[in-house]
Design brief:
By secondary structure, this protein is mostly beta strands. It has 3 helices and 35 strands. The protein has an 8-stranded mixed beta sheet with strand order 12-14-17-21-22-19-16-13, with no helix packed on it. An 8-stranded antiparallel beta sheet has the order 23-35-25-31-32-33-28-29. Strands 24, 26, 27, 30 and 34 form a 5-stranded antiparallel beta sheet that branches.
């Protein structure tokens, strides 16, 4: 008989149901196979049986209990390297006996080929003429090429010269820069010339994209964008921020402020100063002043008519707020914020320049719990200015179903926990070149809120979504 298969190894993955696994080459006895499940060698007869021994087409390894789902099943041919065929002097030689001996030699060659294929070997084109003998094993050492590149040696980590001296010097400098900067992150500076450390809060502010620094002048700051760092006048150790000039930010605008320099203190004053022109007073949530006195602190304000009112802050309020950096919506149908912590009681969804590529597709906010996002049971509606009321269907809509492709939407949606798993939603949205719309509604989800989705019927092609949430009572 001929041997057409060259396999000496067979690999499978268990599914918790299959018990029979095939091998497709010659073995002479049931014991000529080694069988592993999840890396553990199994025992013939006790754990499995073998069929097909003696046939060139192979057979099956059959387990008494199916290997678990995901468990590796490996069958290895392991025919002993012996020659059991005995030919007597001047005795007859049968074709079957001779072929059986040749088959055994072929099987052993195939087994060797499989072992070599799983071993470290030099490429055929390599002209190496050194010594490939391994050094004696030595505890806690590494194996590597020697300096001449013609043999292998043991090396002790952190002491031998397999690490370049320049690399060691760089590592020493790196460790020195990290000293005293616990929990900090490392990055290349703006000039690309050195490494610098950044606190997690500073990294978050980098992601938010603070446009530039503004400086207090006689108690007044004048923002030119919706996010800034703010510093004292003439780099004074401390300075009061009494008023914010709203010339460049219209009614309803959000303003994100963070400390420019942790060594100086900006005191944001509650209900202070005498406004002139477009200057507006600041009203803080706890009716008390708030200090931006380190790089970890920030304040989010919203312009409401002739005042700037606090939305949330990094610390110092009754409950801690967490800012989740903006996520790009481009290329997807959903923007998801998952794994929200237990105890979320309030959240703001900040939508900036969101657009999709499908005319007639609206945009909506969906709430969810451990069972997934919920797409029904939303009461209330969306009220586009100049249009008719649009009742909620599968979420809190903030863009009507008649929104055309490439319409750029901006929105601020406020979610407030009422009782049990009931949430109240209110918000405003605006389409560039069009009027403002309003939404209000309520939704009771099945369990505790742990995810928020901003969905559309089409595919988003621009814009970002960020959230701020508060854990508390």
């Amino acid at each position: 008989m001929t041997i057409s298969s060259t396999n000496s190894r067979w690999e499978y993955t268990g599914n918790g149901a299959t018990t029979a696994f095939a091998y497709d080459n010659l073995i002479f006895d049931d014991s000529d196979l080694k069988v592993y499940v999840a890396g553990t060698l199994k025992t013939l007869t006790t754990d499995y049986t073998v069929s097909g021994a003696g046939g060139t087409s192979g057979g099956n390894v059959t387990f008494g209990s199916a290997p678990a789902s995901g468990a590796s099943v490996v069958i290895v041919r392991d025919v002993p390297a012996t020659q059991p065929q005995d030919y007597e002097y001047r005795g007859s030689v049968s074709a079957e006996g001779l072929e059986r001996a040749l088959d055994r030699a072929t099987v052993l060659i195939q087994q060797l080929k499989t072992l070599i294929a799983r071993s470290l070997v030099l490429p055929d084109a390599t002209t190496f003429s050194g010594d490939l003998e391994l050094p004696s094993p030595s505890a806690s050492t590494l194996l590597g090429w020697n300096a001449a590149g013609d043999g292998l040696s043991n090396y002790t980590p952190n002491t031998d010269t397999y690490v370049d001296s320049d690399a060691l010097a760089l590592l020493d400098a790196l460790l020195a820069s990290l000293s005293g900067n616990g929990l900090s992150m490392l990055r290349v500076n703006a000039g690309g010339t050195a490494l610098e450390t950044r606190t997690p809060a500073e990294v978050a502010l980098d992601v938010v994209g603070l446009t530039s620094e503004i400086t207090i002048a006689s108690g007044v700051a004048t923002p030119t964008a919706t996010s800034h760092t703010v510093d004292t006048e003439s780099d004074a150790a401390s300075d009061d921020l009494d008023l914010i000039d709203a010339t460049n930010l219209g009614d309803g605008a959000l303003l994100f402020l963070a400390a420019q320099d942790g060594a100086r203190t900006v005191v944001v004053k509650h209900d202070s100063g005498s406004p002139t022109g477009n200057q507006k007073k600041i009203y803080l949530a706890d009716d008390s002043d708030f200090s931006l006195d380190d790089a970890e602190k920030w304040l989010l304000l919203k312009r409401r008519g002739d005042a700037w009112q606090e939305v949330c802050r990094s610390s110092g309020a009754a409950s801690a707020w967490t800012f989740v950096s903006p996520i790009s919506a481009s290329g997807g149908a959903n923007v998801d914020f998952t794994s929200l912590p237990a105890g979320v009681r309030e959240a703001y969804i900040l939508i900036d320049g969101l657009s999709h590529n499908a005319g007639g597709a609206g945009m909506t906010v969906q709430l969810g719990d451990s069972g997934g996002f919920e797409t029904s049971g939303y009461s209330g509606g969306f009220y586009p200015a100049g249009g008719s009321h649009q009742a909620f269907s599968n979420g809190f809509d903030f863009a009507s179903s008649s929104t055309t492709a490439a319409s750029s939407m901006h929105a601020l949606i406020h979610l407030v926990h009422e009782t049990g798993n009931t949430w109240f939603a209110a918000g405003h949205s605006a389409k560039v070149g069009s009027d403002v719309g309003h939404l209000m509604g309520v939704k009771q989800i099945s369990a505790e809120l742990d995810r928020i989705r901003v969905a559309t019927g089409g595919t988003y092609d621009a814009g970002t979504v960020a959230i701020l949430y508060r854990v508390g009572t």
